[in-house]
C-alpha cells in the first residue's frame, strides 16, 4: 500500500513518470527474478515497429530499409560525409550522360548460390523504371534513359540529362533477374546477396537472419511497448535496442553494470506533415499558426533530454547542399492566434484537426504535448493512433489531416524530388501531403540540370528557403540514435542515419 501511495502522490508532479516507470520495472524484475537466459550464439534485436516491406524495390519505411541493407548488396554506398563510394561496383564516367558500372571483388553470390551479374543489375533497375510496377523509387531515377549490358560484369547507364550526383542514386538492393522474371515475392521471402541471409518470418513478428560469414543468427523481435522491451533486455530475452526508448528508461538502464549505452548524433529528420488538399490546411496562415504554436525547445529539453537538435530543413546543416541560414519559426503563441484569426478561426469558431500517429508510447507522448500546446492557441487536436501498418498505409494513401514521421538515411538532395515534386504523389514517390507548387518543381528541375555541384548547392539552398516559406511540412528536429545493449554484445555501432550495418561486424 505504501508503494502505491508513493506512485499516486508522485504521478502528478514533474518526476512522476520517472518514478512510476522505475517502480514498475523494479516490480516486474522482482516477479521475474530478472534472470538472464542461458547465453547462446544468437542475437535478439528489439524492434518498436515491424518492417512494412522487405522487397527493396518497394520498401520506403525506415525499419524495412535498414533490414534490407543487411540482406541485399548495392552498387553504391555512402561514407559519413554523404559522398557516394563503391559498393559492389566501381564506375566510370564515359561522358556527362554515360556511366559504366562494373562488378568488383566485393560482389558476393546470391543466397541461392547463383553469381550476381550485369543482367541482374539491369533487371533490378528496369523493374523500377517500369511505370506499370508502381515502384515508389521510380521518380528518383527517371533521368535514366536506357540501360545496356556491356558484358557479364558491366552495365551501361545512359541518362536523359547530365547529373554529377547520378552514381549516388543507384543505392537499391540488387535482386536476381530470374526471380524478377518469375514474379517472385521478395517481400515474403527476401533473397539477396548481402551479409545476412533471410531464414524465416513468424506470425508473431520475428524475423530471422543468418550471417553468411559465420552463421551467427540475428532475430528481429517486434515488441511495441518500450517498457516491455527494456524488461526483455534485462531478462536476457533481447540483446540490442535502438531508439524509441523514453529518456527515463534510458536513465534507469544507465545504472545497470551489464548494460552499455551509446549515443550517436543523428541526421534523421522529424516533421509534421499536412494534407494540403484539406480546406483548412491549404491556408498558409493556418500552417504558420501551427508552426509558431509548437514549442520545440521545450520538447527537446524535457522529452528528448537534449538528445535531438532543432531542424529547419530536411538536410542537416553539415550536408554539402544544406542551407545553413534558414529562418526559424520561433514559438510565438500570440502570433499563432493572430494568424488563426486572419484565417477565420476564433474561440467561437475553433479549428478542429485530427492528428495521426503510431501507437508507440513515446510518439503518443509527443502527440499529447502537441495537443496541449496547440490548445493554447485555440486549435483542438484530435489524436488518432494506430498500429504501424495501418498508420503508414493511411499516410501513403493521403487519409490524414496532420501526421508526424521522420526521413532517415538521407544522403543526396534527390530527396527533394522524391518528397516535394508534383510528379511524386504516391505511389510514384513520397509527396504524401499532395504539395503542388510550380516554383518548387522548377527549382528541383533547375538544380538537377546543373553539371556543377557548386551551382547545384546554390539552387538547392534557394529551394530549401522556398520550402520553409511555403511550409508543406513543419521541420521539427534531428533525433539522435541511442543504442542500448547487453555488454556480451561487442562491436555493434550505428551511424548518423541509424542503420543496422553494425550487425555485419557484431560479435559475442
**Main structural class:** alpha+beta
* Radius of gyration of CA atoms, rounded to a whole number: 24 Å
- The total beta strand count reads 17
What percentage of the residues does DSSP assign to strands (E)? Answer: 15-25%
The percent range for helix content is: 25-40%
Remind me, CATH topology of the largest domain?
Answer: Dipeptide-binding Protein, domain 3
Identify the CATH architecture of the largest domain. Answer: Roll
Number of helices: 15
- Write down the overall mean pLDDT: 90
Can you tell me the CATH superfamily of the largest domain? Dipeptide-binding Protein, Domain 3
Shape: globular
Largest sheet: 11 strands, mixed
Number of domains: 3
Q: Uncertain segments of ≥5 residues (pLDDT<50)? A: 1-23, 25-39
At the first level of CATH, the class of the largest domain is Alpha Beta
Distance between the ends: 43 Å
